[in-house]
TrEMBL record:
Record's protein name: COKA1 protein
Signal sequence segment: none
Record organism: Steatornis caripensis (Oilbird)
Residue ranges of every copy of the VWFA domain listed in the record: 1-133
Domain Fibronectin type-III: 161-250
């Protein structure tokens, strides 16, 4: 579904209006831009009261995701309206363009902000966000689907939800996760992790008495999304989510040249941690460069 807003929000189409990708793209091509003021709080209230209702196509069992796109600071209280949506389990992604207020974007968006807040300098740069945003959105929907397929109801009560996810000891191939268990210990934990830009999600199941995990065999210099779900006999608690990037591979250092002759050079360097082989490339300097 899509709504535009200035001082008066306007529904362009509801969730039930189109059923194919091409229909949505056609509607987008025919969209007329609505200029004017920036009453973001009013717009979020409009979405809640008009667009996320069953008669507008909202399904009770479906994950509710709202993507806010704004190019300015709100002229009313956007935070209060956003908190109302978030209290109802609706996740908000905030995308700022040009003159958007980043502090306000972070207030409006759902946690973790590393996954839900984006800001670009101009509208053409929005295309650079599509890949990552698509991956994050689709993964959230898949997580919801996995819970439903397990035929386990979701419980959002704080008694059943872990807190304070910390990611530490990050290397090029590993990271360490710790979290605070909920007041009521779960039977098991399900940890899902995957590269944010591509890749198949992997998962680990732990005993409910454990509240830490070492992730190994990761890809270097890659951003990973991590989710921790507590599993009980009859319910699944709210998941914790985090994001971090693995370090680059270690590099050789202190390259030294010695034993020069008319047709040979000896090179030496400090070893790169974990390296099993080295590739040495040599080429003649271009004309005019120092020998």
């Amino acid at each position: 579904g899509l709504s535009q807003y200035s001082s008066d929000p306007r529904t362009e189409w509801d969730l039930s209006a189109y059923s194919t990708r091409e229909q949505v793209l056609d509607a987008m091509r025919n969209l007329r831009y609505k200029g004017g003021n920036t009453f973001t709080g009013l717009a979020l209230t409009h979405v809640l009261e008009q667009n996320l209702k069953p008669d507008a196509g909202a399904r009770m069992e479906a994950e509710k995701l709202v993507i806010l796109l704004t190019d300015g600071k709100s002229q009313d209280d956007a935070n209060l309206a956003a908190q109302t949506l978030k209290n109802l389990g609706i996740e908000i992604f905030a995308i700022g363009v040009k003159n958007a207020d980043e502090a306000e974007l972070k207030q409006v968006a759902s946690e973790p902000l590393e996954l839900t807040v984006y800001n670009v300098l101009d509208f053409p740069l929005l295309s650079s966000l599509v890949g990552r945003l698509t991956q994050v959105l689709c993964t959230k929907i898949k997580e919801k689907s996995n819970k439903e397929n397990a035929d386990i109801p979701v419980n959002t009560g704080p008694q059943l939800s872990p807190t304070d996810l910390k990611i530490s000891a990050v290397t090029s191939k590993s990271m360490h996760l710790t979290w605070s268990p909920p007041p009521r210990p779960p039977k098991k934990y399900r940890i899902v992790y995957y590269p944010s830009k591509s890749g198949t999600p992997k998962e680990v199941v732990l005993d409910g008495a454990v509240s830490s995990l070492q992730l190994s065999n990761l890809t270097s210099q890659t951003e990973y999304l991590v989710s921790v779900f507590p599993i009980y006999d009859t319910v699944v608690g709210d998941g914790l989510r985090g994001v971090t990037s693995t370090l680059p591979l270690s590099s050789p250092r202190s390259l030294r040249v010695s034993e020069l002759s008319h047709n040979s050079i000896r090179l030496s360097w400090k070893a790169a941690q974990g390296a099993t082989q080295y590739l040495v490339l040599c080429s003649a300097a271009p004309d005019g460069a120092e020998d």
